Recover the amino acids of this structure.
């Protein structure tokens, strides 16, 4: 260690203490120029408010500024180099990143099961990003541990668990569903944690053909195997048929397997269907099977007096997954996994008791160190933004949003039935509206295989055109035997009937010549 | 549907089209007051910049404003109610949330393997929160798909995979390690995805006693069972002993089990040790075992010419986990999981081919729809903030940070050796400095069981006092036979030798009377 003159320190300026050099590095004073950093952050924020918030939610602006991958690669100058770039260049990169991103907060972004930009949630997210906490212990994240607990408690109240339960926020509904499979399995065979699946009877779980694909991902990831997911058929509206579930359970039993979990879906991804929970719960009760309800999308209906009947029986579930980042606009990601158990099952199932993190000799009540319930170590405080949003709009405000979204869906369905060339798959129960557009050239064709093959090709072309124009985004997919159809999803309170009318007009304008 | 008068619409104001009422909800125009929302966001941002950014990184401010759970519950008024709250109240909630949060960006937050606040990463995070993308398809997240790819490519270059590889960002190092276990298992037994673990030979994986606890969580979660994690002993510095690994592999083989993966750690959590990768790779090669390197913490050393020798041999790994949110300050979370395989293994292992999301008839190259490599469905664009940071400071800037952190660690170790009452566990190789503080009352006691029992109680008391004072935060833990000691971690370029000196002075001031 040598002591340099203050001149040799450059940006660090004159030193009060003698400078210290270790391994060729001067260690005095911070090396970050805080003043310049602050100015940069200020300038960037002005840009973000303009580009992402103001323009990003302005119906007169484009939803997206489409560029193909090769061209966008050039524009963004992706390569990471030896030297850094000055602030003006970095600000330009920020501008480009926003410009060429899809504006998911735009009133005409209808592409996924989330949309819109809520100002309270956004502020909550800015706070947590600036604070950068990790949610393992009360010690490092006191505010976020408590707000997570408060949100879970309230959500469980709406699930109808009068005596409460337990829960954790997870990075996505898929992970919540994995939690469900793991907890259900552990509940049935506590030895599985130590012994593994190989030492257990063959474990089988049940779900409908309409369920989210994360159930099969979970079965693969958790070592159960996708062949041990017994698929239960659904009715024409996409709801699980309880009699079919009973048959599948009987089949598994006859095979000598161990049926340990049923996954019911409240709000399926494509059709927005709700499985009949009470009838499913009866079967689960009879066979002593864990009932998990994937209410990631449909859970929001619980907040509505008008629509909570869709989840009738949900309080009988052993576990529930519910994503407020979808219908309730809490911002990606915000995903609760909840169990009715109050004996510490979640903790026992997942804990590894790391002594460097979950010390038992801390000076406060370590039951607030909730991190060992999780499969994660560092974890984002996803509940906070939802807590802030809920504080701001109240339960009534959330209920209004749900009611409005479903009402808009009904309005759209009614309009579709009135318009020539549009065909509804089925009346919506919730906020998914599925429909075909039939271009004029096909309207008088007989509805055979050829007709449907042609219909199948319509949606992808219209989608390409709307993306290149940037006027809106709406998803399409085939589904079982059904050829490609549009799935419109209504969420944001910024959306109005004018946007519904626009959607239909625009599809017609883009597809009329097909 | 009825048509109301414009008066009855209240906040919606006069209507251009006739109003539409469905299910008691008026559907015309947006219900969100965008002007008021913007003002709110602006005001909140001013607050965030002041409280979380400026004060949160100011060495003269407290690291934390400690409150016990019961008191903090009252202050925050956690309960969620029927009605919402007005903006001034919500702003007060924001202020409180920041005030009572731990300032992880503070120069004296030394408590975890992450710290500091980087302005570029912060701006990157503000952008992604405002844009709110989900990283499943190029269609909805073009910029974020490309920046993720660019970052992975560059990181793999530093790993030393000259021909590239494949990868994905995950929500935490624990999840990355789970990916490793799953991919290694699938590589060995491709049938496991469909058939499950029960249909396979008994799968055994190996890791050192010093590894992160997520390896055992992974074994439990993935249905392998914690008993099938064979623990390999480490030397006194915390490095896996290759001869012991060989013995464990032989043992598993003798038992008729299938050894499928070795987890080596580059930068262990507590001691900061680096397993000898080349010797471990030799054993893996000989036995045809997948080598995963958990470089979540130590990966940053790859960017330093001076320190990359710590990971010598890492290019021989089959997979690597590396978290830029730790040493490189990309902000929680930023976690890369990378595989050397270039045959699509990651995709085959995890894909479920959801037809509503990964349509094959899209109008662009769907190989950019990378989401099916993931176990998640919606996924945050965690690579972007790191891309922006890297663009801003360049590889050289990142290297300087690593070099400075390690130099500071060496400085601190040297100071500890000079000071009476401080005792170093071992010379640091990286940025973890582990040490005991021996209060004056114990300095002349014989070093028997009684002495160490007393030492064990010192760190928790000093920790309590520093938290209540808010002067700094540093972690402690017992470790094997060793009683509680402090683990100091150096990361941020805002930290200087003055902070290192402060740390020692402060521990002495807080513990002198013990």
């Amino acid at each position: 260690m040598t002591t340099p003159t203050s001149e040799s320190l450059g940006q660090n300026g004159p030193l009060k203490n003698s400078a210290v050099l270790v391994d060729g590095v001067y260690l005095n004073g911070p090396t970050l120029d805080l003043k310049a950093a602050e100015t940069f952050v200020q300038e960037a924020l002005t840009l973000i408010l303009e580009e992402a918030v103001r323009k990003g939610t302005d119906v007169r602006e484009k939803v997206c500024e489409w560029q193909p991958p090769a061209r966008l690669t050039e524009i963004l100058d992706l390569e990471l180099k030896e030297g850094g770039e000055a602030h003006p260049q970095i600000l330009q990169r920020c501008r480009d990143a926003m410009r060429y991103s899809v504006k998911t907060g735009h009133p005409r972004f209808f592409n996924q099961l989330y949309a819109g930009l809520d100002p309270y949630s956004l502020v909550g997210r800015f706070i947590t990003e600036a604070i950068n906490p990790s949610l393992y212990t009360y010690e490092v994240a006191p505010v976020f541990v408590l707000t997570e607990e408060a949100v879970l408690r309230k959500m469980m109240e709406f699930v109808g668990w009068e005596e409460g339960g337990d829960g954790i926020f997870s990075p996505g509904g898929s992970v919540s569903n994995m939690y469900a499979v793991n907890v259900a399995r552990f509940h049935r065979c506590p030895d599985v944690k130590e012994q593994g699946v190989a030492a257990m009877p063959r474990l089988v779980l049940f779900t409908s053909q309409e369920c989210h694909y994360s159930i099969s991902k979970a079965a693969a990831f958790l070592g159960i195997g996708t062949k041990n997911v017994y698929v239960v058929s659904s009715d024409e509206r996409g709801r699980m048929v309880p009699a079919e579930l009973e048959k599948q359970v009987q089949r598994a039993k006859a095979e000598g397997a161990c049926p340990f979990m049923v996954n019911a879906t409240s709000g399926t991804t494509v059709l927005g269907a709700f499985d009949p929970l009470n009838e499913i719960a009866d079967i689960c009760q009879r066979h002593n099977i864990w009932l998990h309800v994937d209410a990631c999308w449909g859970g929001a209906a619980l907040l509505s007096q008008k629509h909570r009947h869709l989840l009738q029986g949900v309080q009988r579930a052993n576990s529930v997954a519910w994503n407020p980042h979808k219908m309730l606009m809490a911002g990606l990601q915000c995903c609760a996994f909840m169990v009715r158990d109050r004996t510490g099952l979640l903790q026992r199932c997942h804990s590894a008791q790391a002594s460097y993190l979950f010390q038992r000799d801390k000076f406060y009540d370590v039951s607030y160190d909730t991190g060992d319930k999780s499969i994660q170590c560092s974890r984002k405080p996803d509940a906070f933004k939802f807590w802030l949003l809920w504080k701001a709009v109240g339960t009534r405000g959330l209920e209004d949003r749900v009611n409005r979204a479903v009402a808009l869906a009904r309005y759209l369905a009614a309009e579709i039935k009135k318009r020539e060339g549009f065909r509804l798959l089925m009346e919506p129960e919730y906020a998914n509206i599925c429909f075909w557009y039939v271009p004029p050239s096909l309207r008088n064709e007989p509805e055979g295989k050829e007709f449907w093959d042609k219909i199948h090709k319509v949606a992808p072309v219209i989608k390409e055109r709307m993306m290149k124009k940037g006027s809106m985004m709406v998803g399409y997919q085939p589904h079982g035997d059904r050829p490609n159809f549009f799935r419109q999803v209504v969420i944001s309170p910024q959306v109005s009937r004018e946007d519904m009318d626009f959607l239909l007009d625009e599809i017609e304008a883009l597809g009329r010549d097909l």
Chain A has 14 helices and 14 strands. The first strand of chain A starts at residue 21 and ends at 22.
